[in-house]
């Protein structure tokens, strides 16, 4: 599994637009076979930083989603919303892997 962590610098005066952008992407990521873990918006502290987390079963599925999203009409509309409203100033993308709760099996010494 691959989890994508997005850190957004947003325009605090355009938070309603960013919320709409986020609502759209939650459904879109899920439709493309991913699992969206949600958007996390400013509350206390920085007023211009937001986060999003979503996962795909593997990097190949994520790459397919990225390629397909460029021509999907709903994705294009979401991209256009952010571009038109300028609710996102910049973003950073990181790729993470979850830590498995069970330790990996150890090779037993041969006798």
From TrEMBL:
Record-linked InterPro entries: Dimeric_a/b-barrel (IPR011008), NIPSNAP (IPR012577)
Every NIPSNAP domain range: 8-102
Name of this protein: NIPSNAP family containing protein
């Amino acid at each position: 599994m691959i989890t994508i962590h997005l850190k957004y610098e947003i325009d605090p005066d355009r938070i309603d637009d960013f919320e709409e952008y986020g609502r759209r992407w939650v459904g879109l990521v899920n439709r493309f076979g991913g699992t969206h873990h949600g958007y996390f918006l400013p509350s206390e502290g920085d007023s211009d930083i937001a986060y999003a987390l979503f996962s795909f079963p593997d990097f190949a599925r994520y790459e397919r989603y990225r390629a397909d999203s460029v021509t999907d009409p709903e994705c294009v509309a979401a991209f256009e919303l952010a571009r038109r409203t300028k609710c996102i100033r910049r973003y950073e993308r990181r790729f993470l892997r979850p830590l498995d709760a069970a330790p990996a099996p150890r090779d037993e010494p041969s006798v």
